[in-house]
Amino acid sequence: MPEEIQTFTTEHLDKCAHLYVEVFNSEPWNEQWTFETARTRLFEIINTPGFVGFVFKQGELLGFVAGYGKQGQRSKGFYLEEICIQPHKQHQGIGTKLLNQLMDTLTAMKVTTIYLLTNKDGQAEAFYTKHGYQRSQDMIFMAKRF
To answer: InterPro entries, from UniProt (predicted)?
Structure first.
């Protein structure tokens, strides 16, 4: 079956939400997403100003990437919110193809920096490191639970 990368639209929302639940409720994340909460999260992301996202299909939807751009004081940045690949299709180049499509699009938009959050010391960090991402020396992620 031929591969195709399409722009992520609301037409893809339900399938992407199902995939999101499948991926993030499994190892190594072991989260507790429902279809409804995953769909709401993705709906919010695709409705953020500056949204850019793509889906990867090969007969069926196998993965997606999504985030949004923001203007900074001197340049545009991009917040990579999600990349999600069917577990049995990981390590086959789909994530790389989605990142390449994203990079081509962001380059044309004159984006100069991509930001993301991921678990440290795991497969996701290794994937991003392989693609030239590195831990920030300038910024930290902080949280307050209440």
So the answer is: Acyl_CoA_acyltransferase, GNAT_dom
Note if the bond before 28 is cis, omega within 30 degrees: yes
Paired residues of 51 in beta bridges: 68
Best CA proximity match to 130, nearest among 118, 144, 142, 146 = 118
CA separation for the pair 7, 122 (Å, rounded): 28
Cα 78-84-88 angle, rounded to 5 deg: 155
Task: Give Cβ neighbours of residue 13 (< 8 Å, ≥ 6 apart).
Answer: 39, 42, 43, 46
Mean pLDDT of the chain: 91
**pLDDT for residue 116:** 83
Output b/e per residue, 82-91; b: 16+ Cβ within 10 A.
Answer: bbbbbeeebe
3-class DSSP assignment, residue 116:
strand
Tell me the torsion sign for CA atoms 108, 51, 133, 127. negative
What's this model's pTM, rounded to 2 decimal places?
0.89
- Give me the domains of the chain, ranges plus CATH numbers: 4-130 (3.40.630.30)
Q: Which residue has the tokens 């850019």?
A: 52
Is residue 123 a contact partner of residue 23, using CB atoms and an 8 Å limit?
no
